[in-house]
Design brief:
Blueprint: H1 5-14, H2 24-32, E1 41-46, H3 51-64, E2 69-72, E3 84-86, E4 89-90, H4 93-113, H5 122-136, E5 141-145, E6 162-165, H6 173-176, H7 180-187, E7 197-199, H8 204-217, E8 221-223, E9 229-234, E10 237-241, E11 249-250, H9 257-269, H10 279-287, E12 296-299, E13 303-307, H11 312-324, E14 330-334, H12 342-349, E15 355-358, H13 369-375, E16 383-385, E17 411-415, H14 418-428
Parallel strand pairs: 1-5, 1-6, 2-5, 6-7, 7-8, 13-17, 14-15, 14-17, 15-16
Antiparallel strand pairs: 2-3, 3-4, 9-10, 10-11, 12-13
């Protein structure tokens, strides 16, 4: 099932990667659609890395607590319907098509009236569609992953009951600023007077800016102390718990960084007890959480993982995961967007692999493999170019790269961009 021709054409015209900061257009559009964002309580999740994982875990906890909850995330990996979920079901293509066609009609009418001074963006349209779907489905709470920044992101049109900020690092500097303080100031835009803010432990500069902004508007802020008690169950896999008197929670998402994400989610749950969240719901919710494309294993013998790390901080978490595995042959398949700091990511990742295959992401925004190879030429790791990812990984996640075979005990990671991960998932899932 796919979107209707009209709905698909509408999204294509808008352009997935067009960014136009500002809340006025989404506000005008939502008012014309009947203010659906006021029909449910919202939780905003901003940050640089980990916000999708945190949003997915918190949504899963709410569902396990019996709350009818929506989840809005971005970007999608394979199907645009992945972005909008009620309970554990993605929005159907037919329903999303209906909403997109309605939004197109309304936006055209607003433009004709002169009420809307520019066309809405791809992200704004999908945000409006999500809010309409959550209203129709009678959601009580919606967990909203902020797309970029916070202050001018379309999701920030809501009045949240809780704001969560995951670790802040460098990304999208051309829009958010070139210092951690400037980036933190943009993320702090999701704060509201009197509304609790839960923040991950932050670098000094970012934490100070968040504290300053919170104090200025009267938003009570609490910083997570960091990872709770945890133990490894296998290489790169962990359990965690609040205290000696509570049960161990098995983290379904790989990587030690997920311990910190789970800690942030459990701290947020303390502010949501009125929704019936208890320790049992927390445990079930986190253990039943699925978040594809983030250290997701898709093949074995050799092990093949997909990871959507897209900046230096994300590369560092992937590096930690790789180093936590036993010594064995390791190969990285790498591709990323041209607006990313390719050099910074490569310096973190390339040295922990025996070899690197640079591939194409298949997007106009992507850095060409030859460009990546040029930028990373002096990093002393054997490097080769293979533009066709289907020659590297097969439909069942099997490793098939003839130029660099891996033994059964080997490890391959396809990483550098969520768009590359989406391309890999299409191959693995035969989409």
């Amino acid at each position: 099932m796919k979107l209707s021709g009209r709905a698909a054409a509408f999204l294509e015209r808008l352009g997935q990667h067009v960014i136009k900061p500002g809340l006025a257009p989404i506000g005008v559009l939502l008012d014309a659609l009947g203010t659906p964002e006021r029909s449910f309580s919202s939780i905003l999740v901003a940050g640089t890395n980990g916000k999708g994982s945190c949003a997915a875990m918190l949504h899963s906890v709410l569902v396990e607590a019996g709350v009818r909850a929506g989840l809005y995330t971005s970007p999608h990996l394979v199907e645009v319907t992945e972005r909008i979920r009620v309970e554990r079901t993605d929005i159907p293509h037919t329903r999303l098509s209906e909403l997109l066609e309605r939004i197109e009609d309304v936006s055209n009418a607003l433009a004709a009236q002169g009420t809307l001074d520019r066309s809405p963006t791809y992200f704004e349209v999908l945000t409006a569609a999500a809010f309409l779907h959550f209203k129709t489905e009678a959601c009580r709470v919606a967990v909203l992953e902020v797309g970029m920044g916070g202050r001018f992101d379309a999701t920030n049109i809501v009045q949240p009951i809780l704001s969560i900020i995951t670790p802040i690092d460098f990304d999208h500097e051309e829009f958010l600023g070139g210092t951690l303080a400037k980036i933190a100031a943009e993320k702090a835009g999701i704060m509201r007077p009197g509304v609790p803010v839960i923040s991950a432990a932050q670098a000094k500069e970012a934490g100070a800016e968040l504290s300053r902004r919170a104090q200025a508007i009267g938003a009570p802020i609490v910083f997570s102390p960091g990872p709770m008690a945890h133990r490894a169950t296998s290489a790169g896999r962990y359990e965690t718990r609040r205290s000696l008197s509570t049960s161990w929670i098995t983290l379904p998402l790989a990587g030690v960084h997920q311990v910190s994400n789970a800690s942030l989610v459990l701290q947020a749950c303390e502010h949501l007890r009125r929704y019936g969240i208890d320790a049992a719901a927390e445990k079930r919710g986190i253990e039943n959480c699925a978040w594809p494309g983030r250290l997701e294993q898709v093949g074995s013998s050799p092990d093949v993982y997909l990871d959507g790390c897209h900046n230096a901080a994300g590369a560092a978490t992937l590096r930690a995961f790789v180093l936590a595995t036993p010594n064995r042959p390791r190969l990285l398949v790498f591709g990323c967007m041209k607006d990313k700091n390719v050099r910074a990511m490569a310096e973190v990742l390339f040295p922990v692999f025996d070899a690197v295959v640079i591939t194409s992401v298949g997007s106009a925004r992507a850095a060409a493999p030859e460009q990546i190879a040029s930028i990373t030429a002096d990093i002393r790791v054997p490097t080769m170019i293979e533009a066709d990812l289907s020659r590297v990984v097969g439909p069942d996640g099997e490793w098939r790269y003839e130029r660099h075979p891996l033994p059964a005990e080997g490890l391959a990671v396809i990483a550098g961009s969520l768009y590359l991960v989406g391309l890999a998932k299409r191959i693995v899932s035969r989409v």
